[in-house]
Amino acid sequence: MNRFIVMKESSTRLIHGFSYFQPSFRGDVRLFSHFAGNSELNSRKSMEGLVRCSANYVPLTPISFLERSAKVYSGRTSIVYGSVKYTWRETHERCIKLASALAQLGIRRGDVVATLAPNVPAMYELHFAVPMVGAVLCPLNTRYDPLTVVALLKHSEAKVIFLDYELLDVTNRALKLYAKTGKESPMLVLISEADGLSSVDYNSTAIEYESFVATGHNGFEIRRPESELDPISVNYTSGTTSEPKGVVYTHRGAFLNSLNTSFLHGSGLAPVYLWTVPMFHCNGWSFTWGIAAQGGANICLRKVSAKAIFDSIALHNVTHMGAAPIVLNMMANAPDIERKQLPHKVEVMIGGATPPHHIFDKLEKLGFGLTNFYGLTETYGPAAYCQWQPEWDLLTPDQRSKLKSRQGIHHCCVEDADVKDPATMESVKADGETIGEIMLRGNTVMGGYLKNLEATEEAFKDGWFRSGDVAVKHPDGYIEVKDRLKDIVISGGENISTIEVEAVLCGHPAVLEAAVVGRPDDHWGETPCAFVKLKQGFNANAEDILNFCRDNMARYMTPRTIVFDDLPKTSTGKVKKFILREKAKGLGSLS
Amino acid sequence: MNRFIVMKESSTRLIHGFSYFQPSFRGDVRLFSHFAGNSELNSRKSMEGLVRCSANYVPLTPISFLERSAKVYSGRTSIVYGSVKYTWRETHERCIKLASALAQLGIRRGDVVATLAPNVPAMYELHFAVPMVGAVLCPLNTRYDPLTVVALLKHSEAKVIFLDYELLDVTNRALKLYAKTGKESPMLVLISEADGLSSVDYNSTAIEYESFVATGHNGFEIRRPESELDPISVNYTSGTTSEPKGVVYTHRGAFLNSLNTSFLHGSGLAPVYLWTVPMFHCNGWSFTWGIAAQGGANICLRKVSAKAIFDSIALHNVTHMGAAPIVLNMMANAPDIERKQLPHKVEVMIGGATPPHHIFDKLEKLGFGLTNFYGLTETYGPAAYCQWQPEWDLLTPDQRSKLKSRQGIHHCCVEDADVKDPATMESVKADGETIGEIMLRGNTVMGGYLKNLEATEEAFKDGWFRSGDVAVKHPDGYIEVKDRLKDIVISGGENISTIEVEAVLCGHPAVLEAAVVGRPDDHWGETPCAFVKLKQGFNANAEDILNFCRDNMARYMTPRTIVFDDLPKTSTGKVKKFILREKAKGLGSLS
Q: AMP-binding enzyme C-terminal domain: from which residue to which, for each copy (chains A, B) (predicted)?
């Protein structure tokens, strides 16, 4: 019965399923020459009587959230999807069975399990069941074309793919391409409608999800992470500037980010969370795990629409949701018939980019509470948030909306976030004007890019994660993003934030969308070139737009070229500026 | 510039001040025979491209909270104490200087720094400055007598003691006793009033706190923990049943508990926290560090009184506070002249024991929101809390108050909490009736008892921390404490919760306090014996009390003996039942 490790020497003995140890509490006397600040002997005084065992040490993992909720909120609703409804006890049981089924399939620790599915209950369950079998979840973007799907299945070496029935066609085409490579294709598990209502002819080689879960055992002993730095998921970036990169998350990072983010977003009290953010984006910005930490209810939607959002809010008493700008747009512009009175204030976490002021204002009038968040795939989603300050209540609406549109301050599990000169690593002045690159450090920064050590080392150069986002720091410490580093236009030595120019362009009544890139210019180096898509039924010519710009922004920022065109976008809805830059280059030099 | 550790082998190289590593992401293929649940090969699939460096790994420590608040809430109020007021930037600077001064004094990593002081700003600053020099904080209870102070200074091997001027006398007597042992006494730093108004004749050998801080350097490079399992503090238990034990906290545990507890207690938004809980109790139930995580304001009080509480709430717009039952009593029974209208709902975390219903009701009517918390020194303070469930809103006041008086469910950083049979380790039935011992596991359980490996191993027997608290588990998973394991009275084979009997006794209009212990009985084994203290100006005889008991509790629980007497208490205000048990024994067998 001696299950204790007395903390005297670093040890690698296995105990209660743990295989690694941190060093001694009472280590030998050592000298630490790197503490240059003082000349005292920096030796360590020892402490005795301490142990490390299962009573006081557990590797951090979001699996714990599910286990806790199954106990302390056992009868509370975990998932709602149409007529399907589970409690936390049921979700826990289903995840154990699913993990067991995966083990029976031969899934080993560290194996990759891919998904290609919208926000259905299976997607939520896989976020726990895959780590519970020691495997790594790889949720692919449902908008990928077959070629990308093949490339990422190969790159991740996925052993199984859980596939929604609506995406069967894309996947079949992808798997045919896969077969040509001579490699063994991943196994398929087909997700039908959770209420059994889908009527697709299943591919005969695929197992159906519910039947698959049923093959698992309740008594399966889950495979906890051996180390909290074990990988839990790999999320591919959208690839605005290059090939998608596989961002690897660890159990530790996932635990810390999801716990912290979910507490920041709302209270600990039974949130009802509406899923419009795809779970394949940074694992739902860490909220897949975070909602389990709070014992909240996950309201799942197969398809996001304004009607579905307002209906769900009214039907389920939604308290919280996340939303990308495109979804906010949808909500603000919903026709009256689709819009319903909110039962109470609904808190919305905004990610991706700051929406235009008029969208912000409209949604607030409808009863939504909006908070800007900032993060990247590499930071498990949310890393900073625009925390409201009580003294802002006294400001004018215009001042308030300026303050609210900033990205804000880093949360408690990000060790540090700063705006730095990427060449010198000096912090920029907190004057709201000097631009630099956002850099972050801490336990909620990714483990690295899968099989791309060069990119990992480049991203972590000088001991900080380089976000690639250009920003300013305000005197109150709040960060405001100005542009992507690669998108900024430098004209006659002036940095022009394309985001700012685009925001002005979108204020023109006829403009639906706009994207700005640099066009080569013999005199200025480059000048802003705007690609503009007009709203249906509206008209405007280049001169109208240019006049509007001249009236609303500094002279040097005003675009010199206006192109009316559709905007090419990535699978996550981001504009592919590299294509627009090619187009702008094709226009030739301006001066 | 190569500062990366590629995660391929376990390594112990120093990098960016870290001296230990967890094992490889892409370790070799290993077999794990302890996963008995399935027969598949349980080998590990490797992952490449991952690194560990300062960009993505930092040992968890509450020091980070202070550093973050100094940046993101730099101008916001950190501490208020009378006319003294600091911002987070100032508190951070003062802590760095204080850490530097300690380093100059020769304080090494792992050295113990003791305090003997009430909740003054110096106490708060020491909670960060001592860890920032790599040392271990040992906050002694200000009610200790000189003998105990000497014993604990010797046991902890404290190198310095920070001493409040009001406790100079006790300490001088203690140090005289210390000198007799022949050992070198700890150095003294004397805390005068932070506003410079105290007029005590300082002991000439002692340094004054503000002068001491002034000797430190702003540029001091703090000593971060080498491992997040390094000790951060040692808190001595009050010793209701035995000698005080030194409970050692780690940086990791302190980070997790303070973050989690402070989020549970309130929102992330600028709390104004009133200190009535001594910072020397479990480091202020982890709120010393937790308030820094939220950038809240610490309202410090030298002396707790109803008037000081109501005045502070009104003056500083207090939003949150913690309180032991004795403080709640004080607040509920305050004369009208000392009571002020609350500016808004004030959330109160209750620790120690559930107060009687009428106190609960009265405070709620005054505008306080009360939540029961449960924890021990060994769990960094709060481990469980009575989370309000929305459906409880529909119940009768009586039902609600029954539900609210329970200790509740464990928080997200406690891995598991259960009520178990201490002999068989089986979980008790969740029927609200079967009693067992509360046991806990997880990262917020202490590292162990300082220099008392035997006690540590006893406490962690079978891989769980044994709380020594007897409780039931209700069908909804909520735990309710019934008694201390050592206090329970077993009469004729029936377990009698002395807490329940005491609650009934306190319901008698003449009773101020009551404590129940077992009195030997030849027939029943033992029977309940009540020690009762009456309110001033009230009269009641034993027969009155016994009749009241018979009317309000089950026959077998009714005390057979009533003794009118003062109750002997520990320095933390807990009744010393072992003394009462001796007295009861002295009465002889009843039957």
A: 500-574
